[in-house]
């Protein structure tokens, strides 16, 4: 099989021939059709993400199952699936007991990711893609979409509340659509005025174009009960926290570029909360896959052939990918 292998940090990823893998007990073999590219791939390239190299990256894969290992009874050959990050958790650690991300989970780092013609995955890490949802549109749901759905659910939105999405790229443009689909008043906060029309079309009730101080811009627009922060800017996240209404919650979904400074006095008197979220409950994944299948969430994609993985990663690093880039396999 052909696979894009990351051998060293800061070096070209190489498209090479590797032996076809065979699934062990509990695993499946997937013919990958699409593989989304995420910010983590840039962190991996820069050595900012702990990984044992060489590795095949790609944690937003979708495709068809071509072989099942012994004991796999819930999937069959021909099933259209995607694979989540935490494929098989230990079930024993304190995080597992609390139902959050397991530090001992088996992931693409253990079995290899989706930037490859064939990919092994634990069956427990696979999810069926609903009929009517294209494999390319489903790909970004498996990290970006799952993450924002979990972030919004973990913000405990109540009917009538206002959600502001800070940063409207790969994750943010999905968060805007999800919040709108759930019937919540949705604000998009962006530094790019040229995105305004697109964001209104995606379902934003209002677009706040902000400079250095999104918190002030948000307060000027009436504040928000929930901020879903998808930016990596610690400064922007700290500022947006001040745009929360009383009892507001900010959920951070990404790796910030430094410590986030929070106005603790403002948090105290207004009962504001800072929360974190990564994909936790499988029901969140199902929920956003269903929204996508109904056309209520439509990832905006740039699709490139797998052989151009280096170029796509460079585009992502340079901030040139407008929403989400997906690699297409031949
Ligand atoms: Zn990701
Ligand atoms: Zn665990």
Structure overview:
- The chain is of the alpha/beta class.
- The chain has 2 domains: 2-142 and 282-328, Medium-chain alcohol dehydrogenases, catalytic domain (Quinone Oxidoreductase, Chain A, domain 1, Alpha-Beta Complex); 146-276, NAD(P)-binding Rossmann-like Domain (Rossmann fold, 3-Layer(aba) Sandwich), CATH 3.40.50.720.
- The protein contains 12 helices and 16 strands.
- It has helices spanning 39-46, 94-98, 108-111, 135-138, 144-153, 172-181, 196-202, 214-220, 234-241, 264-270, 282-293, 309-317, and strands at residues 2-6, 14-17, 27-37, 55-56, 61-68, 80-83, 118-122, 126-128, 162-166, 185-190, 206-209, 224-229, 244-252, 273-276, 301-305, 324-328.
- α9 (234-241) links the parallel β12 and β13.
- The radius of gyration is 20 Å and the shape is globular.
- The site of one zinc ion has 4 residues, from loops.
Descriptive labels:
binds zinc ion, single chain, globular, seven-stranded mixed sheet, alpha/beta, six-stranded parallel sheet, Quinone Oxidoreductase, Chain A, domain 1, Rossmann fold
**Helix percent band:** 25-40%
- The CATH architecture of the largest domain comes to Alpha-Beta Complex
String of helices and strands: EEEHEEEHHEEHHEHEHEHEHEHEHEHE
Q: Largest sheet at a glance? A: 7 strands, mixed
Average pLDDT rating? 97
Tally of individual domains: 2
Using DSSP, what is the number of strands?
16
Choose one word for the global shape: globular
CATH level-3 fold name of the largest domain: Quinone Oxidoreductase, Chain A, domain 1
Structural class: alpha/beta
The CATH superfamily of the largest domain is identified as: Medium-chain alcohol dehydrogenases, catalytic domain
Bound molecules: zinc ion
Poorly predicted segments: none
CATH class assignment of the largest domain: Alpha Beta
Number of helices: 12
Portion of residues in beta strands equals 25-35%
For the terminal residues, how far apart are their CA atoms?
12 Å
Q: What is the radius of gyration?
A: 20 Å
């Amino acid at each position: 099989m052909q696979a894009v292998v990351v051998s060293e940090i800061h070096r070209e990823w190489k498209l090479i021939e590797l032996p076809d893998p065979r699934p062990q007990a509990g695993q499946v073999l997937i013919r990958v059709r699409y593989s989304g590219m995420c910010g983590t791939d840039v962190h991996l390239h820069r050595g900012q993400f702990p990984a044992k190299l060489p590795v095949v990256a790609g944690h937003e894969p979708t495709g068809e199952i071509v072989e099942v290992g012994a004991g796999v009874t819930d999937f069959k050959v021909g099933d259209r699936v995607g694979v989540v990050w935490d494929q098989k958790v230990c079930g024993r650690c304190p995080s597992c007991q609390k139902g959050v991300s397991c530090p001992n989970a088996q992931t693409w780092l253990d079995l290899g990711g989706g930037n490859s013609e064939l990919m092994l995955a634990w069956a427990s890490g696979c999810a069926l893609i609903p009929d009517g949802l294209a494999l390319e549109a489903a790909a970004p749901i498996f990290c970006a979409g799952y993450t924002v759905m979990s972030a919004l659910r973990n913000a405990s939105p109540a009917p009538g509340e206002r959600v502001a999405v800070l940063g409207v790229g790969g994750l943010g443009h999905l968060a805007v659509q999800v919040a709108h689909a759930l019937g919540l008043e949705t604000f998009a906060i962006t530094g790019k005025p040229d995105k305004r029309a697109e964001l209104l079309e995606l379902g934003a009730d209002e677009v706040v174009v902000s400079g250095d101080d999104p918190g002030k811009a948000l307060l000027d627009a009436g504040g928000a009960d929930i901020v879903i922060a998808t930016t990596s800017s610690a400064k922007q996240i700290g500022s947006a926290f001040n745009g929360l209404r009383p009892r507001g919650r900010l959920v951070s979904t990404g790796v910030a570029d430094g410590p986030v400074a929070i106005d603790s006095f403002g948090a105290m008197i207004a009962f504001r909360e800072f929360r974190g979220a990564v994909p936790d409950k499988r029901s969140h994944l199902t929920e956003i896959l269903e929204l996508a299948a109904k056309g209520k969430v439509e990832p905006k994609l740039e699709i490139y052939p797998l052989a151009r993985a280096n170029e796509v990663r460079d585009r992502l690093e340079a901030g040139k990918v407008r929403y989400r880039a997906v690699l297409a396999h031949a």
